[in-house]
Amino acid sequence: MDLHLTGKTAVVTGASKGIGAATATALAAEGAHVFAVARSPIAARPGVTPVTADLVTPEGVAAVAALGDVDVLVNNLGGVIPESMGAAGFLAIDDDAWQRTYELNLFATVRVTRALLPGLLARRGVVVNVSSIGARAAFPPVDYGTAKAALNNLTKALSEEFAPRGLRALTVTPGPTRTANWSDPGGYAGQLAREAGTPLPEFLKTVPAAMGITTGRLTEPEETAALITFLASPAAANMTGTEHVIDGGVLKTV
Ligand SMILES: NC(=O)c1ccc[n+]([C@@H]2O[C@H](COP(=O)([O-])OP(=O)(O)OC[C@H]3O[C@@H](n4cnc5c(N)ncnc54)[C@H](OP(=O)(O)O)[C@@H]3O)[C@@H](O)[C@H]2O)c1
Question: What is the 3-state secondary structure (H, E, C) of the chain?
Fold first, then answer.
């Protein structure tokens, strides 16, 4: 299936690893030219131009704004900050942690989207916001889930305001995805494994049952990237304002 992305220009935030890196690769494989944004240097590869920028700073947002008009913006940047990862509930998350979680998961995306919106409108482009099942259910930590819930609302608001002018906005909602956050000992799962006193490989075997992943496995980043790439493409030209869950069946509500 030709997704008609050849010649399109895309920005993917948080693209040095995980879902963002897989999305940059997938979009480039479909013929798009991708600006891949992260703080650490990314190796240039065919179809992928690295942009080194910290998107929670004004300078970082300005660096992305300077890229000019684009057709596709994938706001993939986000995650649980280390302080909140191990927090023992709501009372253990202080103002500073809330603020930094919202900078990373919401405000950086608001600013990048605002900066690129004129060009996206000129090209009748598309914004794909990468959320989390934490937006849809009360999984801890609460700062992360509420920031992602706000992101879902932002997607819908963008769609309502700008779809009449040709812009599409969509949410992709991953569940547990086998990125470094799960596979590296220093990541989210590594911390939970240490708290449980279980080696990480053994701990990971318990995750599907513990989290209710009906398919029995974590999602691969490339699977989420394929969904994002389809939604970003003209093949999905009449889809806007909708949320697309890729979680192996974790969310049980209809
Ligand atoms: N993995 C999961 O299980 C899962 C589940 C649900 C939702 N999600 C969501 O999916 C998205 C991607 O998750 P992931 O697990 O693939 O992420 P990841 O592996 O932790 O990668 C995060 C990316 O963001 C970049 N980054 C972090 N802070 C940045 C900043 N201030 N400015 C610019 N870039 C920054 C990182 O590179 P540098 O460190 O080099 O900057 C990296 O490329 C996130 O929004 C996350 O909330 C993930």
Answer: CCCCCCCCEEEEECCCCHHHHHHHHHHHHCCCEEEEEECCCCCCECCEEEEECCCCCHHHHHHHHCCCCCCEEEECCCCCCHHHHCCCCHHHCCHHHHHHHHHHHHHHHHHHHHHHHHHHHHCCCEEEEECCHHHCCCCCCHHHHHHHHHHHHHHHHHHHHHHHHCCEEEEEEECCECCHHHHCCCCHHHHHHHHHCCCHHHHHHHHHHHHCCCCCCCECHHHHHHHHHHHHCHHHCCCCCCEEEECCCCCCCC
Residues of the chain with pLDDT under 70: none
pLDDT of residue 187: 86
Residue numbers annotated as active site:
144, 148
Domain match, 94 and 173 both: yes
Give residue-wise pLDDT tens across range 122-179.
999 999 999 999 999 999 999 999 999 999 999 999 999 999 999 999 999 999 999 9
Same domain, 151 and 237: yes
Q: Do 72 and 153 lie in a common domain?
A: yes
pLDDT of 86 reads 83
On whether residue 2 sits in a domain, the answer given is no
**Atom 13 of ligand 1, residue of closest alpha carbon:** 19
Domain annotation covers residue 1: no
- Structural domains of the chain, count: 2
Q: Is residue 251 part of a domain?
A: no
What's 104's domain CATH number?
3.40.50.720
- Residue 185 C-alpha to ligand 1 middle, in angstroms? 16
Q: Specify if 149 maps to a domain.
A: yes
What's the confidence (pLDDT) of residue 189?
A: 87
Ligand 1 site-directed mutation target among 40, 76, 251, most atoms within 8 Å of CB: 76
Mutation probe of ligand 1 site: the residue of 17, 37, 220 with most atoms within 8 A of C-beta: 17
Q: How far is the CA of 21 from the centre of ligand 1 (A)?
A: 9
